[in-house]
Amino acid sequence: MQRIFNFILNNKNAFLYVVLLFFCLVVTIRSHSYHQSRFFNSSKWLTGTILSAQTAITDYFHLREENQRLVKENEQLRLQLFNDGNLKTQDEVPSGAFEVINARIIKNTYASPRNYITLNKGETDGIEQDMGVITPLGVLGIVENTSAGYATVQSVLNTKSNINAKIRNTNYFGSLIWDGMDYDVVQLVDIPRSASVTVGDTITTGAMSSIFPENIPIGVIKKYDLNQNQSSYTIQVDLFNDMANIKNVYIIRNKDRQEILELQNSTNAN
After folding, report:
1. 268 — alpha (psi -120 to 50), left (phi > 0) or beta?
2. What pTM was computed for the model?
3. Residue 157: what are its φ and ψ, rounded to 5°?
């Protein structure tokens, strides 16, 4: 307590100056309308600034919640899209062949010949091998391995990747592969020479896949050349996805896939 008294006594002049300054300000503001106006305008500006900052901080901490809401909303819209618009209400599960599960990327590689992506969902969330994975912009890859809580995805930027793809609005399809060069360009091969190919055309998933629904975007034609036999095109495709900057994804399950594969295997065995 003695220290407090000593501090006040040692700084009595400064305290007196502050008290007198405050007193003068109060007298000046109360006796002059101009000063009153300036004071209240300044206080309103300060209050507005504080409230704006408070709102910005509150909005920031609600971003995650809002982002999750949008992801769920997009999941429902994709369910409707992949199942021919059979969705009637937001909470209804469509009766079509495809299911959609949202997930987040926790690890992503794109600079090696065989790139993989790790997701934060696994077997307990219904994730299985050979499910398709997409983003809001297009195809990302195919689930390769799963554990209880996680899954790894073979990226389209993997030299082992092979996805059925076609030129949009045509029936010309081929295989989407990656030559291991540019992380934003993949190759569509085995497109017959009779196909009409134009730079800027969109490439999508084909109807021959039991993993992806048809017509999911992949990218646009950058350039193309005939192969050595001059019988088909090798097409360079600029990906819609920025493979170095991805967070939220959607996993697609084709409920009819096992039945399709069993039928095809039975046919091939005959």
Report:
1. alpha
2. 0.68
3. -90, 60
